Amino acid sequence: MAERITRDDVAKVAQLARLALSDDELDTFTGQLAAVLEHAEDVAALDLADVAPTAHPLQLGNVLRPDVVGPTLDRDEVLAAAPSAEDGRFRVPTILGEAP
Amino acid sequence: MGESFISAREVAAGVRAGEWTARHVADEHLAAVAERDGEIHAFLHVDPDAVRAAADRIDAAVAAGDDPGPLAGVPVALKDNLCTRGVPTTCASRILEGWRPPYDATVVERLVAAGAVVVGKTNLDEFAMGSSTENSAFGPTRNPLDPSRVPGGSSGGSAAAVAAGFAPLALGSDTGGSIRQPAALCGVVGLKPTYGRVSRHGLVAFASSLDQIGPFTRSVADAALALDVIGGHDPLDATSSPSPQPDHLAAVDSGVDGLRVGVLSEMLDMDGVAPEVVARVREAAEALAAAGAEVVEVSVPAVIYGLSAYYLIAPAEASSNLARFDGVRYGLRVDAPTTNEMMVATRTRGFGPEVKRRIMLGTYALSAGYYDAFYGQAQRVRTLIARDFAAAYERVDVLLSPTSPTTAFAFGDKTADPLTMYLNDVCTIPSNLSGDPAISVPFGTGGDDLPVGVQVMGPALAETDLLRTAAVLEGAAP
Fold first, then answer.
1. pLDDT tens digit string along B89-116?
2. pLDDT digit string (tens) for A18-60?
3. Mean pLDDT score of chain B
């Protein structure tokens, strides 16, 4: 049985999800997520050890296509939709931070 | 605006026979939009010049002696989570505002190849997360039957567009009921096909093991025609079913004589299902019996766990799918000194409260220490639901239930507590978890004179049985 979600849990999850939450939002989400998880206790409490999980409604395996070159999206058209691009690539800010 | 309420089949027949032009049909529907969409707000994007130009191309084909196809000149509205090349596709989110996709969704290609004319992109709950369209970043849609009420959601704009006569056909997506519930609340037909029946290439993903595209129409036959056009295998969607498609339209009028119909008992007893809705479902069962069906009551015990399982599985998949909105490749970017800070700032400003709530819930359900207790357990419940449905379908051909627990509700009625809103989907969610098809068809009204939708469910790829059952109900509706 899962214990009740805490404000610290919510703050940690926000960090994992790349969201910055205000103090008010942390409080609100803590209560709301707890309510949904409490509702889910009916599922969490079931004894289903001998039931296989279903990830997907179809019983399809990997779907492969012939390894031949086909049409793809136009690179310039794709990059034109990006917030920033340079030299045929997506441009992003610093990734590793300044050297000391 | 008489012509704006005729069926898709009548529009196409008239255009193909040269009785009227696609341009005339387009102008009639654009006039309806201009007259009333200021109030209803079904559309997020309409480009009248592009609509007229597309209609003129259909007329030119007819004039040249070509057949534009089974949807010749039929105006269609597209939920704004379906990619349209060069045309804004927002998912009703600030994070995609201004984005123009570099390709068309497969369903859009198929509609256009069949002669359809795209009228515009319709409003939705942000990223299809909601049951009222109140979660749209661009303001809610109003129910054309009573503008003080919601149209349902998440495909509320598509349902409203069809109900208001802006288009005889619209497409939506259904992850937990997002086609069927708004169809019920707006008094139109809404079909969620079998998972895999319709390609999802070009549908912005919410929960990939649940999402399915389907039509809104004002008649069951139009829904069958739409499925004939958009369904079938697509190599661009790895989850697309390779099974050949039957002719759905040809099966619509075959009646229900000898069909075994089960009234799904658990869904008549669920919390919040209004007595007037239960009464309409029982009357629908009687109408089917009168038409020759064998009607029994059937239990599908595990459906009572559907809501809980869904609100673990769908947010988990959403938290993963929505990781792609990071300010790098498309849509909004909020500048910051480092890439990580840029991503946090972009997502924090770009996503609305319900989307953040579901990302949080899903990230939690998937996180170390909770995965087995929540997500793993929900996946096992999914097996139980599929197993119980399969057992029921050994005894009956189709199942009958309410679509939505109530008729259309007022704005703000269910926004204070997320769980109250989630309960709207209690009867529709199980079909998404099992992957089976389901249709909502209007059948009478509640005490407020607003429409009630009856849901017909069936086993995988049994759309023809659903459509002929729905057609009998359409003909027998009070």
1. 999 999 999 899 999 999 999 999 999 9
2. 999 999 999 999 999 999 999 998 998 999 999 999 988 887 7
3. 96
First to last CA, chain B: 26
What DSSP state is assigned to residue B82?
B
Question: Does residue B79 have an active-site annotation?
Answer: yes
Tracing tokens 């075959």 back to the chain, one arrives at B254
- Clarify whether residues B54 and B181 are in a common domain: yes
Strands of B237-372 (E only): list them.
260-264, 294-298
Full-prediction pTM beyond 0.95?
A: yes
Domain count, chain B: 2
Residues 6+ apart with CB under 8 A from B299: B264, B265, B266, B392
Inform me whether the C-beta atom of residue A69 falls under 8 Å from chain B C-beta atoms.
no
Those residues with Cβ within 8 angstroms of residue B386's Cβ, 6 or more apart along the chain or in another chain: A54, A57, B433, B434, B435
The token pair at B306 is: 């559907």
In a domain, B314, yes or no: no
Fill in the amino acid letter for B324: R
How far apart, in Å, are the Cα atoms of B217 and each of B8, B182, B222, B328, B355? 8, 12, 6, 38, 28
Do residue B295 and residue B205 come from a single domain? Answer: no
| Interchain pair B435, A58: CB under 8 A | yes
- What CATH class is the domain A7-44? mainly alpha
Token digits of residue A46: 């079931």
Distance CA B477, CA B209 (A): 34
Gyration radius of chain A's alpha carbons: 23
Nearest to B162 by CA among B329, B255, B37: B37
Distance from CA of B405 to the nearest CA of A (A): 18
Q: And the tokens for B144?
A: 């054309």
Q: Which parts of chain B sit beneath pLDDT 70?
A: 1-3
Give catalytic status of residue B178 as yes or no.
Answer: yes
Tell me whether residue B136 is one of the annotated catalytic residues.
no
Q: Are B82 and B171 in contact (CB under 8 A)?
A: yes
Task: Tell me whether the omega of the peptide bond preceding residue B154 falls within 30 degrees of 0, making it cis.
Answer: yes
Q: Does residue B176 sit in the same domain as residue B304?
A: no
- Is residue A44 within 8 A of residue A1, CB to CB? The reply is yes
The CA distance from B195 to A19, in Å, is 32
Structural domain that includes position B443: 254-308+373-476
Q: Do A36 and B99 touch (CB under 8 A)?
A: no
